[in-house]
Design goal:
87 residues
């Protein structure tokens, strides 16, 4: 499993390259909609890209709880840990 820092860097790269976010604004505390200026379609697209990256599907109830980039990291980490337990 990737470390939290490796996950953060991978997500940051997606946000900078694909969504043209300012790299300096991409922090774990960054609000997805306010600070990074993503809209709901961008957020869904981000989740799809994360699914491709990790092979994991983010559940709708988890997706609704995401407000910050740290929340995204928490969900991805939890899903990766659940996958390890099931393997």
């Amino acid at each position: 499993m990737k470390t939290r820092e490796e996950l953060f860097e991978a997500i940051k790269q997606i946000l900078v390259d694909e969504f043209e976010c300012d790299a300096a604004a991409v922090t774990p505390e960054a609000q997805i909609f306010q600070d990074l200026d993503l809209d709901s379609i961008d957020a869904v697209d981000l989740m799809v890209r994360l699914q491709r990256m990790t092979g994991l599907r983010v559940k709708a109830e988890d997706f609704k709880q995401i407000r910050t980039l740290g929340d995204v990291l928490d969900v991805v980490e939890r899903l990766l840990k659940e996958q390890e337990v099931q393997a």
